[in-house]
Amino acid sequence: MFHNFQEMEDYIKSQNIKKRLVLANAHDEDVLEAVVTARKRGVIEPILIGKEDKIRELLAEMGEVAEDYPIIPCQDEREAARMACRMVKDKEADIPMKGLMQTASFMRAILDKEAYGFVPDGSQLSQATVMEYQGRLMIATDCAVNVAPDYSEKVKIINNAVKLAGKLGIQCPKVAVITPVEVVNPKMQSTVDAAMLSMAAQRGQIKNCIVGGPLALDNALSADAARHKGIT
Predict the structure, then answer these.
(1) Across-strand partners of 44?
(2) What digits encode the pLDDT tens for the residues 177-199?
(3) How far apart are CA 93 and CA 90, in angstroms?
(4) What single DSSP character describes residue 67?
């Protein structure tokens, strides 16, 4: 089980894992700097797509030799996203990454079955952020892709997050369903859904995790906050 990003990096290096990452619209200083750092640390082999002159200029400013990086010229952000996804689909790369482009352009390519074919019918695409918090890893989902998921979609989002947690070595994650308040209010559908998700997990309808909710953010993260409000 990983407790922090350093443990993850140490494991990747010990197993000699080096993924091929393709960065769409790589002419983005902040994102490109992160990719360059990951390459220096020996965990990825990057491929850069985008405005070649700008990419070369940014690499030079970072003290990098542009010839050390495969660069694919592309002026259009939608085409850059499609190219990145096709490379993953054709096994020329392992991970697509978004540079300086609208999220919508990147998502269109991800969801384009011809370009990528990543999302099987009946499944739910969701976004997850992995972070370090007080000596352990936590996952926040979904704060980017699904704007107003219904109950069945929330079940799929939880299942996606539980699967990701398993990849991090967390075998039975504790899932907090976050709502504006921590009590069930029939006028607030999110609290009703949270209670239903919690009960579904207790009855084994949602597997491999413990689900609690509705919970506000403070009492999901702080045991003291939960005790203060009488939540066990």
Answers:
(1) 19
(2) 999 999 999 999 999 999 999 99
(3) 8
(4) G
Q: Is-above-0.85 flag for pTM?
A: yes
CA torsion sign, 210 to 216 to 220 to 223? negative
Position of tokens 């750092």?
A: 37
The answer to whether the beta carbons of residues 209 and 158 sit under 8 Å apart is yes
Cα–Cα distances (Å) from 205 to 45, 146, 201, 209, in that order, read: 41, 22, 6, 11
Q: What is the mean pLDDT of residues 12-20?
A: 95
Amino acid symbol at 103: T
- pLDDT of 119 higher than 80: no
Give the integer Cα–Cα distance in Å for 130 and 139.
Answer: 5
- The contacts found for 224-229 with CB under 8 angstroms, 24 or more apart, are 229/182
Nearest to 45 by CA among 62, 17, 21: 21
Are 223 and 203 in contact by the 8 Å Cβ rule? The answer is no
d(CA 26, CA 3): 31
How many Å from the N-terminal Cα to the C-terminal Cα in the chain?
Answer: 26
Q: How far is CA 161 from the centre of its chain?
A: 9
